[in-house]
Amino acid sequence: MSGIPEFKDLTKEVATQMRALRQTQPDLMAAFGQLAVAGTKEGALSKKTRELVALGIAIACRCDDCIGFHVQTLVKLGTTRAELEEVLGTAVYMGGGPSMMYATHALRAFEDFSV
User: Fold this and answer.
1) Residue 67: which of 32, 38, 104, 34 has the closest Cα?
2) Key word Lyase present in the record (predicted)?
3) CB within 10 Å: which end of the chain, N or C, has fewer?
4) Closest CA to 94 of 56, 54, 58
5) pLDDT of 69-98, one tens digit each?
6) How would you class 48 by CB atoms within 10 Å of its CB: exposed for 0-12, middle for 13-18, buried for 19 or more?
């Protein structure tokens, strides 16, 4: 599929660069890590629900790197394709055509991480 990244490779590369930033920007990366933990912890919403929301935002913001990481986590959390597709539908509803294009990226990521 032209223009759609290989998500396993993409997330691996971004993770490598983020590890490099931990060496030069430890305070920033520690704070970002704490933000991620706080933003996805179990509470009134489950971790899976919070990750689904994050994926919808990633699609609306057109962030392939974010799509990759959130879909990877969602697959680990046991998200079904039907659950993913419902979130994609909501993202498209809220973001229109551009979100439709990035929703296809999320489907590709789901396929990449589901094997």
Assistant:
1) 104
2) yes
3) C
4) 56
5) 999 999 999 999 999 999 999 999 999 999
6) middle
